[in-house]
Amino acid sequence: MNKRPTEPYKIRGVEALFGSESEPSASDSQTLALEQIVLPSYHQPRRHFDPISLEQLATSIQQHGIWEPLLVRQQPSNPSRYELVAGERRYRAAQQIQLSEVPVRILTLTDEEALLVSLEENLYREDLNPFEETLGILDWLAVRVGVSVEEVKSTLYQMNNVAKGAVNQNVLVSELSDAIQTGFEELNLISWQSFVSSRLPLLKLPSEILEALQNGELAYTKATAIARIKDEKLRGEILQSAIEQKLSLNQIKEKIAQLTKPTQFSIANSPKGRLQDVVRKVSRSEVWKDPKKWKKVEALLVKLEALVESESMSGSEGSQPEETQGDTEA
């Protein structure tokens, strides 16, 4: 993934719509009563607002105020209300500390323009999780190119197949793929190839993992590791442990290895495998260091040895008549 710009982010959607010279500046901002601002009817890229992060932002606003004005547009149906275009975290933090008014920049935007600006503003903020960013990029491309999200996904998969030489590209797909590729270059967040290989698979994750990822309870790398577990019950147990115990990626991988190992033995259902597994566990536990436990183990070993010797003797006696019979026939 490409590195995000280190300079303060300038909303490219606004610049593209108004031009670099006529773009509203910070001095054009004004204040609005918080109760006059309403959330948009279309969904925002951000699905989850981390309570701790929101609390920190609220504290910062309380101490230093809101440095970057919220972007709003006037509602055509109700001129006294303003629809939030960008800055939902600041809006929610202001609500949390019960601010009466906030700084805003009022823009004149169509529905499509408002959605583009909103998506861009959110995509260039680092605190979107990979799932939210994936959905945001798909939404942005769909609006930018003028097709549905499903068509964007389908075209991306076709582009990937063409790149691999699996299929030939027709003219219509070629035009759409060129537009999508240009879109990725404009965003400069991630290449379309990396998006197909590492981001689109997120949309196919099991529902419980997708929910945890969407709610910010699980990192992207941890989610993909747990998703590889085929057993639903085991996957659920590891997912719960990862969230509750805040396990690292390495700890999750170790836990998966530990819990899937017995499963492999049970699938094989081999007596020899079970015996070897018990011996390994006894060796690792160093049970002989505990006198009480070792006494019990020793009693079991005596019985096991007696059983093995008994079986060995009965096997030898059983073979004797066959040898005798063989001599007689000879």
From TrEMBL:
Keywords: DNA-binding. One of its GO terms (molecular function) is DNA binding. GO terms for cellular component: chromosome. SUPFAM superfamilies: KorB DNA-binding domain-like (SSF109709), ParB/Sulfiredoxin (SSF110849). The keyword DNA-binding applies. Residues 310-323 have a biased composition (Low complexity). Residues 30-123 form the ParB-like N-terminal domain. Residues 310-330 are annotated as: Disordered. InterPro entries: Chromosome_partition/occlusion (IPR050336), HTH_ParB/Spo0J (IPR041468), ParB/RepB/Spo0J (IPR004437), ParB/Sulfiredoxin_sf (IPR036086), ParB_N (IPR003115). GO terms for biological process: chromosome segregation. Pfam families: HTH_ParB, ParB_N. Belongs to the ParB family. NCBIfam families: parB_part. PANTHER family: CHROMOSOME 2-PARTITIONING PROTEIN PARB-RELATED, CHROMOSOME-PARTITIONING PROTEIN PARB-RELATED. This is ParB-like partition protein.
